[in-house]
Amino acid sequence: MARLWRASVMLAMLLLSISVQAHHDESEPSDGTVNSFIPINPPLTINSVDFVRGASEAVSLDDFKGKLVLLNFWATWCPPCLRELPSLDRLQQRLGSERFEVVAVALDRSGYEGAKAYYQRLGVEHLELYTGSKLAFSYEFPVDVFPSSFFIDSQGRVLSFLRSYVEWDDPAADRMIREYLANSSLSRAKAENPVAPSE
Question: Residues in domain Thioredoxin (predicted)?
Answer without folding.
Answer: 16-182
